[in-house]
Amino acid sequence: MDIIAVGIDVSKDRLDVAVRPGGEAFAVERNACGLDRLIERLRQLSPHIVALEATGGFETVVAAALASASLPVVVVNPAQIRAFARALGQRAKTDPIDAAVIAHFAEATKPQVRPLPDEATRLLADLVARRRQIIEMIGAESQRQKRITMPRLRKSIRRVIDMLNKELAELDGDIDDAVRGSPTWREKENLLASVPGVGSIISRTLIADLPELGTLNRKQIAALAGLAPFTRQSGQWRGKSFIGGGRASVRTALFMGALVAKRHNPVLKAFFDRLVAAGKPKMVALIAVARKLLTILNAILRDNRSWQNA
Q: Model-level pTM?
């Protein structure tokens, strides 16, 4: 039986839809009426997978509407779609063509459909992402302050930094209210933070940006975080292993946790020291610690048991 795959290219005002096999294509407006029409048509098609490209947030409402209609929706990485289009030799680019490429990608690769985060989790993810942006802006302004000597400009930068720090404090309060207001999130945060090296910021980033934590096996969760190693190989030549892809915010949080854990977590410190003693470069050992930390956190939520030193 043919797999019916639907690709949707999402823009600000319009949804271009392509269906494989058969080549059916149509478009609807990205509003309530358009989504109702889309859901009605997709229910008639009974697709095995409906793929949307992540497009800066425009896809969120669409994905949520389709998921609430019990349709098998998955949000795919734009970089993967671009690479797939290049592999097909597809150079022309229009919204209908993009939808057809997304449908072809879904048909060929069959990405796994996973439950989407609920509205509260998406809100927490937005708060955590905004916090990350504020910190980046504070860092950028601090670097400018180091290079500037004119007193007038230094005062201007200082005012901006003070304003950003105030905004950061308010965001931290909003995040704390969100987490503490949810018994489930509060329990998860307490479990994750029981691991030496993991604090509230890392815990909340994982809750917001990796809601699958505790529901997948260690290989699957490592791939989602971009910590699964892959090797370049051709014939007799075998290159070095690399990590990449996945969710950058999660990977960054885990590296922060690994930096602390290799000093203060007895299990991970011994693991790091053993790798370095065996001749592994320190960065390779740190990546391994981050991956092992993720495996531990995944098991803790899966088993609903806090950290044990033994």
A: 0.65
- Mean per-residue pLDDT, 80-86: 84
Q: Which of 99-113, 129-143, 244-258 has the lowest mean pLDDT?
A: 244-258
pLDDT computed for residue 5 by the predictor: 92
**What is the SS3 assignment for the chain?**
CCCCEEEEEECCCEEEEEEECCCCEEEEECCHHHHHHHHHHHHHHCCCEEEEECCCCHHHHHHHHHHHCCCCEEEECHHHHHHHHHHHCCCCCCHHHHHHHHHHHHHHHCCCCCCCCCHHHHHHHHHHHHHHHHHHHHHHHHHHHHHCCCHHHHHHHHHHHHHHHHHHHHHHHHHHHHHHCCHHHHHHHHHHHCCCCCCHHHHHHHHHHCCCCCCCCHHHHHHHHCCCCEEEEECCEEEEEECCCCCHHHHHHHHHHHHHHHHHCHHHHHHHHHHHHCCCCHHHHHHHHHHHHHHHHHHHHHHCCCCCCC
Residues 169 and 122: their CA atoms lie apart, in Å, by 20
